[in-house]
# Entry
Amino acid sequence: MKDLINELGEKVKNKELSWFQAAQIYNSRTGEGLSSEAIRKRYKRVSEMPYTAPCDTTSEFETQFNDGTIEAQKIIEYNKEILGDKRKLLKFLGYEPSQWEFVYLTTSLWQQHTKEQTTKQLYAVKYKVKPIIKELELGEALQEAIDVFKKEIKPYKRIQNKQNEELDPNKLLELTGIELHLGKMAWVGDTGQSYDKNIAQDRFYYILDKVIEQQQIEKCNTCLLCIGNDFFNSDTINATTTKGTPQTNDLRWKKMFNLGLEMYVKMINTLLENFNHIDIRLQSGNHDMMSSFYLYIALSCFYKDNPKIEFSTNYKEVQCYEWGKCAIFYSHGEGNLKRLIKSIPAEFYKEWGSSIYRELHLGHLHKEVVVDDESGMITRRVGSPTGTDQWHYEERYIGATQKYQTFVWNKELGLESIKYINFEPTSELKLVRKDKRWKK
# Structure
């Protein structure tokens, strides 16, 4: 398996694969269920191991160690002049005498009979060499440092607001808040399926992969990215929701926040490469009202100098985003739905009056529900990629497809398409097979 690990790691290193894709390939070939992080760690160990080759007194081998020393055995033909001069022998063996020196050296004479019934007189030369470390003068050391800095350290380049002319300025890709419930822990023995931080990360990055695939086709100029919507599973140091409901987590609160911040930075950096503009908005949830707000503020500080990103200072629980003749309303949706729907035209009367296509996008129930009450607005509850925990199982909130939805809007024509990204629950069958992760 070392060769496969090394092969996949090299492809990731060359940006031919992501670690998530490498894990999928490895698991499909081996039947194991390793996460992308496990594959990365195995590659690191394999790549740092010294290369060793089998040896005996009549065969050649070479072993290179991490400190730069090399131990080897080579078979050479008899040459009295070379064997009597260590510098000449170093060069004959392939080492520059000014850069290498012997640690030890042994030679043994043996004979080899050829097909022509003649005898070759050979030497088995077993040795260990190490690189010569020179003590540099101050001027030489300074020049060496300058050369290394020139080669290894690249100057910081300010992000340029370079526009991709191929993208359609009339099209918007809406990414609602991913209701991931990062930190949630569920066990197959309790609920029939498992969920933890590793599964959550795999699903988050799979969503990102699918969004980029979709963008290659749709070529939207702008991305609307919502932050929150129960992205975190809990909101306090005691692992409870904002209102105090206890949660079962596999992450402590500090680590959970740092991991979530890292995940969204990777997502936004990837989106920056594929969109001309990104509008980022807050979508508060009932599990993570405070922590999602802190995440939103942290991201706004991180990207404050980026001209391609805009963060709103509107932190209300119900918000509206205008796109041409479209009005996209969004909230988490844990309150009274009927009153929420009726209040939209009153609160957003200007946006309502200037729009033709209107939708209200909500989360909370972990399932897709579409409501058309003839009010002039379609209400959609979007799905969630999170797994089923013990409370939902006991209350019989089960059976909904675990998924995420993206929306493509046209300024003049309204909603053009909805893409579904579905997930198969991590079942007991897969757990028996070493907790094999969801595969594409």
User: Anything to note?
Assistant: The CA atoms of residues 301 and 311 lie 10 Å apart. The mean pLDDT is 85. The chain has three domains: 2-48, 51-155, 168-432. The first strand starts at residue 61 and ends at 64.
